[in-house]
Amino acid sequence: AAGTDPVRQELLTQAEAALALRLGGQDDAAAAFLRRWAAGLRTPELGAMASEDVAGAVASLWGFAQTRTPGAAKVRVFNPGGREDGWRSHFAVAEIVNDDMPFLVDTALAAFELLELPVQSLLHPVWSVQRDAGGRLLAQAAAAGGAAESLMQITFGPQGDGPALARTEAALVRGMADVRAAVADFPILVERLAAVRETLPRGSEREFLGWVGEDNFILLGYRRLVIGPALKLLPETETELGLLRNPALVVFDALRDPAMARVAVQAALATPGRVAVAKSDMRSTVRRPQLCDVIGVKDLNAQGDVVALHLFLGLFGTDAYNRNPRSIPMLAEKVQAILARSGADPKAHDGRVLRHIVDTWPRDDLFQGSEAEILSAARRVMELQIRPELALFVRRELLGRRVSAIVYLPRDHYDTRMRHELAGMLTRAFDGTLVGYAMAVGDSPLARVQFSIATDPASSRAVDVAGLEAAMAQAARSFADRLADALAAEQGDAQAARSVSVWGSAFPAEYAARHTASAAVHDIRNAEAALSGGRLTLSLSRPPGAGANRVALKMYHPQQAVPLSDIVPLIETLGLRVIEEVPTPLAPRGRPPVVLQTLALERMDGGAIDVDARGADVLATLQAVWDGRAEADGFNRLV
Prior knowledge:
The protein has 21 helices and 20 strands. Strands 1, 2, 3, 4, 5 and 6 form a 6-stranded antiparallel beta sheet that branches. Strands 7, 8, 9, 10, 11 and 12 form a 6-stranded antiparallel beta sheet that branches. Strands 13-14-16-15 form a 4-stranded antiparallel beta sheet, with helices on both faces.
């Protein structure tokens, strides 16, 4: 055809020939399917594959799609290469044939993400087909005229053993079944949401459910829980929809224990309003592998008593997290109430800063936190703008399963290592598991990280949040901060301030990660001596945990390192050998550089080295030999 890429056309011709050879003859239907399959590949990607491998992949999916039970997904996972329709690949392959419907690709990818299996490629041809009553393929059509089907061929890897492949297949089968349930019930879910909305009086809660129904919430399931005697929750199985058709799925883990469920129901009934938003304890198998959101609505009888809870399960759309909360019903009123309680002038600087903090507060916490909690936290964050330091804000979710921990810290202190350290402190304090985090680093002097910690409601422990914050603040302090304190303890505040201006950023990150601030003060003292005298300065000590025959020799030299070929022979005249050397360049501000070389030494005869008694003489001898005031000979061993 005019305008066809000749290179691509040649590649497809070669692949068709290889496919015909594999199938034992020309098959026009299979050749047409090959072109549909290849439409998802760019020409360079197609050219990178051998024609026989293209033919193997196409023949595999083509053969798999010949039959399918109507109304169900067909899934298989295998290692190619050991099958007649296999091809050369280092990766495993998943193939899915299904009725075309929304969220299929996202759901398949979510399954691999939950299993922590990296996906290498995904091809997703969609075709219109005709099948007989038994599901056997009769014809494929380029245009509508049959039933639309989705085909997926996913390579992931590396190749796995039988149990691993079975787990992957089971996860995909479940994901496809969940998509089908959610999509099939979606019209009813929309109607149910609208019907529940009509039971609410006019106001922000009713408007919120209307906003939810405007594609701002991916509806995945519904369940109505009747409040029975002793506050026992009784699910109405005949009303369950979508993912919650499965009665074994419990939205909140706390509801598994009757005693805890009773406490949770009491807490839910005590909350003001009729509509609440919470995080489920079940992770979505559809669309995104995240913890599901739950919109709960209290159902009242004619007397105004709460008799049941409507639970709508799903995922908020990304726009719900990105847009200004003052444009979202229910949240808008909450934000306005928080700002009004603050008493700040909305046109003044403090009012504008406070509004920005509340507007950008983590959305889940803005939904679930109380006005008083959010205002108190926002006021503290305002103070941090002037003097940045670590601050911790903790909120336990209503049903006690998760803890939300929001951490603010100086932006220049935040890095991946620090995030891992803070997460570890939180999970140990709450005896939980990290299930997610979200960070925000903007133009302000602060970075914010929100950690979500899953805990066991039955064994939740009381945590001294103030004490934990203090410990985290110490962990988050920069090396320069700790160095300033150590210098102040030795030199006094005035002299320490001058020293910090020179040496505060002189040490590389590798040094800061391995050494204490006290060790740095010692090194600064010797580096200053080297700069003042313009000559080599030495220090000898025993590293913590070292044997009696080992010591550390530190050499401080202005401008450049001491060549090992110059110093090692002199050290050996003392009966010592050099085990290793660690060089550390120091860059004091406004001063010449200094190179710190740390040498690990040991006695050649294996004997002990008494640093306290003989260290000064060893250093004096080595200095004298280096200066040429003593001979470099074996008599130095006598020292």
